[in-house]
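LOG
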Amino acid sequence: MSNTSKAAICVFANGNSVPVFERCFNSILKHTPPDQFELRLAFSQADKSLCLAVGALSPNGVWLQCDRLPDGFERVRWTARQGFPVRAWHTERHTSRENLARLMFHDLPLESEYAICLDQSAAVEAGWWEALAPLLERKVDYIGHLKWRDYLPGEKEQIERHSWYLGVPQARRDGRPGVSYLGGEFMAVRAERLRQVNFPCSPGFAPGCDVLLGAIAHQMRWTQATHDDHVLLVE
């Protein structure tokens, strides 16, 4: 994969669970070629984890560009000493994953072909990038750990009111409507698709943005691949 088509690796950190974040963070640095990605980090009440990332990635005397954003967010930009761009968003208050995702995906437009999303509870092992690369080269739209969610009363109707709803019949399991989706602990989505539907576009949707993205993928008939090689979910 060329530098112009590298991925944005996006990590969500909630709360000051520093050992959990550090395990995820260090695994990415150790097992990912530094010329293949940019790093996007989002911190909700996780200032200690932010300090760890800045300390690990910033050489002495590095210039950090800091910007104040609405709703109590701060955006920080710099280039890691390893050579890749780093973008970080931080708030001292608790906020939803949807709000963090919107910042990482849209506050600074994604220039890479893919957004690869990892929760801080995930860690990657040696070979993860090499295992994932063929799916990225094939330009599969939606990649990750497969899950299923039955819709609760009213959720199917919420889906059908969205502008991207195309009338594709809702999936069913054991006679109940629902959706196959990729768990937010690890997934990769083509950035073009995220822009296409302005995702996440409905923070009020009860099951959360991961389930909503699965519904979008179903309606838009995105190409999909289940993938969990060398990606661990840890307690």
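LOG (cont.) second protein
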Amino acid sequence: MLLVLIVSAISAALSVWYLPDFIHLAFIAAVFLIAAAEALDWGLGALITPARPRAVLGGVLAGGLLLALRLQLQRNAALLRRQFPYPHDTAFGRIDFPVRWAPVLIDRTRQLLSETTSHELWAYPNTSEPYLTTGGRNPTPFQFFYSRVSPPEHTEQVLAILKQRQVPYIMCQSFFLRARDPVVQAILTDYESVSMPELKGLGFRNLSLYRRKDIQRADTGAPPP
């Protein structure tokens, strides 16, 4: 059992080595909590032979650990309130946002989607948050898609879906857009950025909303191409 625990801990550490941030470490924390409890029990057994004093000392240490964890959780809660000071109701429920522009973008997108019959919104690349916060329907079968890492046949399938279904809106992460990306080329050909004056002065944003050009022409009364 000890060997299984050691191998599991090593494997868990290696599995998040590519991005050991807070979230990934939380995924594997349970394995190391078990290892810490095992090590603590072994240490007390080595230092204190009688069972009763060892049990008392173990209880004291456990109580101290719980108190320390409670204080840390209070500090974490206060930090999160400072980091995410903008609560807002979304299609997914109440979410606390770190920036002011996010709720504005979400509300505007929800309004535009409500004016369509399909309520379809495609988020690109590799982001699924807009589906939850706006209630938009993903027209593709992929919850994670990025043409630079996805198979070429998936890229062809996505491009075909965008053209056949005439998906009205696309939300893009500007950080990941590349000029040679065939999906980006298709977006720039068939879509245009949605103007949102209400976002002015709210800081830099990494999400932008695009609308099919023929929809824009319909709004302005101009004939489609």
